[in-house]
Structure formats: C-alpha cells, structure tokens
Amino acid sequence: MHGPNEENGCSTCEMDYSQVITRGSLWSDRRFLIILVSVILFSFGLVFELLLGLPGVSLNLFFFTACIAGFYIAKAGISGLIFRHQLNIAFLMTIAAVASFLIGHPAEGAAVMMLYFIAEFLESKAKEKAQRSVASLMKLAPEMATVKQAGKEVNVHVHDVEVDEIVVVRPGEKIPLDGAVSSGTSSVNQAPITGESIPVRKQVNDEVYAGTINNEGFLEVRVTRLSDETVLSRILTLVEEAQKEKSTTEHFIDKVAKYYTPTIVLLALLVVVIPPLLFGVPWFEWVYRGLVLLVISCPCAFAISTPVAMVSALTSATRNGVLIKGSRYVEELGNVKVVAFDKTATLTEGQLVVTDIVSVNGSTKEVLEIAASLETFSEHPISQAIVEKLANPGGEVLPVKNFSAIPGRGVSGTIDGEEFFVGSERLFTEHGITFSRELVNRLEREGKTVVLVGTESEVIGVIAVQDIVRQSAVVAISVLKKMGISPVMLTGDNEEIARAIASEVGIEEVYAELLPGDKVKVIKALQERYGSIAMVGDGINDAPALATADVGIAMGAIGSDAAIDTADIALMQDDLSSLPYLFRLSRKTRGIVRQNVVTSLVVKFSLAVLTFPGLISLWVAVAVGDMGLSLAVVLNAMRLSRIRTDINGSELLD
Questions:
Q1: Which domains are seen in the chain, by residue range?
Q2: Euclidean distance between the first and final Cα of the chain, in Å?
Q3: Is pLDDT at 372 greater than 60 in this prediction?
Q4: CB–CB of 569/554 below 8 Å?
Q5: Does the global pTM surpass 0.85?
Q6: Distance between CA atoms of 633 and 332, rounded to whole angstroms?
Q7: Is 574 tagged catalytic?
Q8: Average pLDDT for residues 114-133, to the nearest whole number?
C-alpha cells in the first residue's frame, strides 16, 4: 500500500485494497480493471473537451472517472476520519478532487483520483515483490511426504508425519522434513536455506533439512522434527517477525508523519485564506494553489522510503543464507567498527586433528599406536583426534590392561607388560619423567596442543593436535579490514595458542583464557572504547556475549536451534563467507534510505515553493510530487533485494 498502514504504526497512508485485490493474472486483478476503465473514460473526456468542444459530455466522463477510481480512496479517507479521527492521505486526495470539480477543474479532479489510484496499484505491486521472501519460503518444503509404513510407501501430508518415521526422497525431490539419513548417499542442494551454491554430500547419520533438494541419490530419512519445528519453519516465523520489527529511522519517520499531515492541512488552509483576505486577490486562484500544495505535500514517499528499503534488505539477506531478526539490526550494523570473534568453531573448524607426530625413542607408528590404544578408552576431544588419526591409515589398536584416567592430566595403562603414560606436561613432571622443553615450546608457539607419550622412565614421542583454521575466516577477516572494520578475538584457550591462531587469520587484538563471564566483560569494555560492537560466535557457549553485543551474529545456524534463538543475526552456513556481504548490505541499505529520504524532502519542498507563484498544476502535483516520487522511492529500494556479494566483497546482481 501507499506507505505504512496503521498496523505498522503510521496512519498517514492507509488506502485499503483488501476489498479489491484478486489473486491471479493481471487481468483478473480488479484494481487493474478499475485503472483500465478509468483511463479509457478519462481519455474520451479529454477528446470531447479539447477536440470536439463538448464540455458537458466531458464533465460527465470526468465525473465517472473520479467515481470509479476514487470510490475506495474516498471510502478509506472518510472511514479514517469518522472511526479513527485521522486526516489520512486518502481523505486529502478526496478533498482535492471534490474541490477541483467545484472550482471548475473537472479534468484535474478526475486526474487526481485516477493517478493516485494508479500510484497505489504500482506501489503495492512493487512492495508485494519486495515482500515475497516469506511466500517463497513457504513454497520451499513440499506439502506431501512419502513415508514407509508396514513395508509400503504411503503419501502423507507433512503435518501428519511423526518423529522417527522414515521418509523416502528420490532424486530431484525436495526433502519434506528435517531428519537424519538412515540409508543411501547423495548430494543435497542446501542453497534455498543456506545460500551456498555447492551441493553438500550426505550419507548415513548426516542431518538434512526441509526444503533442500536431493540431487541424484536415493535417500531414506528418519524424521527428527515435526513440520512446525523444522529449521525452515523457524526461519519463516522469524522472517515474518523481522518484517514487523522497525529500525530507529522508521520509528523517527513514524513520529514525524504523525504530525506532518495535520500541519500540511493547516498550511494549505492558510494559503487559501490569507492572500485573498489580506491582499484582495481572487479566491479562485488561491483555492487552487492550496489544493496543489495539499497534494504535493502528501508524505507517502517520505513515509515509505525506509520501510520498503528494509524489507528489500531482509529479502536479500534471506536469499543469501542470512537470517536477520529485524530491520534495526540492518541499521545497527552500519555503526559497527569492531567485530569480536569467538575462536573455537567460529574462526576454526571446532574439531581437533593430529598435526605432528614426533618420535624421540622408537618409530612414529609405535608412538601413535600406543597413544591411540590408551586414548580409545577416553571421550576427550584430544583422545578422539588421536584415535581417528590411527584409524585413517588403518593402524593397529593394541590390547591395554590396567587402564586408568588421571583427571586433568591424561591416561595410563599397561601394554605388553609395560606401563605407558599419555597426557600433559604436568603428568610427566609429577612422575619425574624428563622431556624436551624446546620441542614442546616450539609446537605450542605454533598454536598446537602437545600430548606426551612415554614410559615410567622416558618420553618416547610427542603428538601435537590443533583446531584447524577456517579458510573462509582468513578471507572474510581480510575483506572486513579493507572495509575499515577491526577484528578482535575472544577465546578460553591459552595465550600462545590464541596468538598463533590470531596471527594465521590476521587478527592483532586478542583476549585469551576467558570464561563465558569474562567474554561479557570484554564486550562491555570494547563498547566503551569503540561504541557499537558485533559479536560472532557459535550461538551456544557464546550466548551471554552474543546477547551483550549490540549485534549478535551466530554462524552455522542451520544445525543449531540455540544459534537461531540466541543471535540477532544467524549465518545459516557453517563458515564466515557471508559476513562481508552482511556488512556491505547494511551500508548499501543505509545509503539507499538516505537517498530516498533526501530525494523525497528535496523534491516535495521544491514543488511546494513553486506552488506559491502558481507554477505547478494539480497534474504535476499528482504525477510527479506523489505518484512519480513514491514509485521512484520504491523502485530504488527494491534494488537491495537483488544484491549479493562474493566472499571478496565484490558486489553482484542476481
């Protein structure tokens, strides 16, 4: 509609098309038919007046044009005045049209109604296009699912599918519900949710999501979430809520618009009354100029300049795998100069891998086999990394007796009658076993965690594990720095490991050995130093810090309910490739909002000034000052819905 409606907190523009909207083709849309009939009648009216010299016939044609095009406009205006005691734009347009007929300008009175109705139609169609993200999300997941029941395949509505039931997904079909693959392998296109262009390989026990597309393999999926609990349904709900959330600029414009219309009505009345009373000039001329001022001053273009831009930005973000919970976060990102990153599972993969096996006495194979054999009994992430390293080349797990876990230090056990230890420096120091401090320090300076392997008398080898840095993090941080945004690292790891990882990704400012509460204190300190701060984390361990930051950004949200619930913005992909795009989108949105607001004010002010010497007609007032300007604002804002950027920050168009 032409500007925000009353639901959104602004009643300046509230033309209600709900009674004339018809779904389907353009020809089945009653609004289009109203426009078509009005244009035909108006055209014939001009022919009879200007070419045939029959003003009586033309008057009737102009009257019918105004009635057909203006019926719903007048209805909205009068009901607003009677039931809500508000002078909305529809009422002002009605006054302008009626007064034009009364002072002998029927063609311009008809034009006011016709052009205003056309403006409403064009803007509503443009805004419908900008708001299609929710509708397109609703269409992502199929309504029916093929479920295995008693050995048969049965088509069932997704609402009737229960958790733990098995659904069958054939090549080319959309996955109907969230679940885990129970049989089969395939590549799945997750672009509808994450925005990533490369299909993801799925095999048994891998998670799959409703609305994603099975490319070539046959999959059987065990359902893990009901239809109203899927990631897609949660995204849909949050997008709908986000479009209702207003930015600071929108709230400001709403407040201005609340007092704008009554002020303009008063000014128009003064223009009509003061010149004739004080200077004796003809009433006719100044009534006409007052009507022109009334139409020009319609605040619709100004009022919709921000909301339509924000909706377009939210649409663009959704298409690119970024879920933003409200337009105020789009705006707030533009103020951010510092981004705090959690380390584990954000800048790094969050999964430890063995990087070095150093033999001191014996072979590296022997060191790995002894360590893995003992660590098989432990669930610690470091233990799992060592065991996985042995499994990949197909090493042998040795029989262990007398296994013992030593809390905070490591493990011990007997292999072939000899006792072995695997663990930290502290474990070996406490047992009086010497080791090469130089070797350990070198590995730790590289950001690696060191595990010693040895007997009761000596160290036979050293194993180093490390959380691998995400390559997308290296590129993303480089781009952010070029954009003038400073990165900061927050981590619970020790200083040496933190510095090593930070150096690899290009971060200079590091805060290490932090508990969750400490991260909150650091965020507050950064806010005092820099102002607005964004925090990027995995949305689980970082919840307090994400909530404290001005904008909390969770990554990998497709697999985490906590990430979607906690953060203000969720990156659906499990990497940082969308982060530069997100900041660029925010800056672009703020720029377009400024363009729209400034253009609206400048054009309207200029036309208003030209009204006083009588240089602007009602035709120009409606066609340029209202319809043309409002449509230009909408179309300018809709450019945001087409914007995407690659990881290097280069702006692209769909």
A1: 6-133+241-312+588-645 (no CATH), 142-229 (2.70.150.10), 322-347+470-583 (3.40.50.1000), 349-468 (3.40.1110.10)
A2: 26
A3: yes
A4: yes
A5: no
A6: 22
A7: no
A8: 68
